[in-house]
Design goal:
One of its GO terms (molecular function) is DNA binding. With 251 residues, the chain is an alpha/beta fold. The protein is built from 10 helices and 15 strands. The strands form 4 sheets. The protein has a 7-stranded parallel sheet, with helices on both faces.
Length: 251
């Protein structure tokens, strides 16, 4: 088997299972563990995966600070934001997570009927300063500056009293086996709490976040009501998400 073929099989396993165990891969591909480990070392050097003891994990997405992420507003995120905003109905209460993708939702929210927005992000609240029909409830707490969201016990207690119709969740990574994840332990906890208080949870995922894993799990992908992904992603990559029974919208 050619090296390129072996590496392709390894990447397929990584996407499918969220990890590669060298011993299991060697058995499945009828190769020696030494060969698999050598391939994993080379692939890690090429930036294709992250070596761990006994195998490999997906590369965790980089976490640039909020100001850097806000400076990059792509057409893809705008399309995803518009698709999410179109889901909002008159009189609903929605919860907007922090982040640049949810900022695009805030900018695209309808202006011809009334609804309520809850957020624990002062930057999201500021986006809605001049919105003519949105009532805004801002949750307070300890500010996590990287994502500009309130965290901690005070925020959790306030959120426990809310029952949003839709929670638009921000994630740094989504994987069909490893779940939805983010880079901070406290932020993952509060995202999980908001989802538990909400009737529906929807997340927006750009291609680089798909089939990736960040250090702190929020919840399984199957706990979502739906996922909005950028159009043009291979159906083969989306099939494992559709199999979980969630609604997938391409935008």
């Amino acid at each position: 088997m050619l090296t390129s073929q072996r590496k392709s099989l390894i990447l397929d396993m990584l996407r499918r299972e969220g990890q590669v165990v060298a011993k299991r891969a060697a058995e499945e591909f009828s190769l020696s563990e030494d060969t698999i480990r050598r391939d994993l070392r080379e692939m890690a050097a090429e930036g294709l995966l992250r070596r761990v003891h006994g195998g490999a994990m997906p590369i965790a997405p980089d976490l640039p600070d909020f100001s850097a992420r806000r400076a990059v507003s792509s057409d893809v995120k705008q399309r995803l934001g518009r698709a999410a905003a179109d889901m909002v109905k008159p009189g609903q209460t929605i919860f907007l997570d922090g982040g640049t993708s949810t900022a695009e939702i805030a900018r695209a929210l309808p202006r011809d009927f009334a609804f309520t927005v809850i957020t624990h992000s002062p930057t999201i609240a500021a986006e809605l300063e001049r919105h003519p029909t949105a009532d805004v409830i801002l949750i307070g707490g300890k500010l996590y500056k990287h994502s500009m969201v309130a965290t901690g016990a005070a925020a959790m207690n306030q959120i426990a009293l809310m029952r949003p119709d839709i929670f638009f969740l921000g994630v740094t990574a989504a994987h069909p086996v490893r779940g939805l994840s983010t880079g901070d332990f406290e932020e993952a906890a509060i995202k999980r709490h908001i989802a538990a208080c909400s009737a529906e949870t929807i997340t927006l995922v750009t291609e680089e976040k798909l089939d990736a894993v960040s250090p702190h799990v929020i919840m399984p992908v199957s706990a979502l009501s739906g996922m909005i992904v950028q159009e043009g992603i291979d159906e083969e990559r989306l099939a494992s998400y559709r199999a979980l029974g969630i609604a997938l919208l391409e935008a």
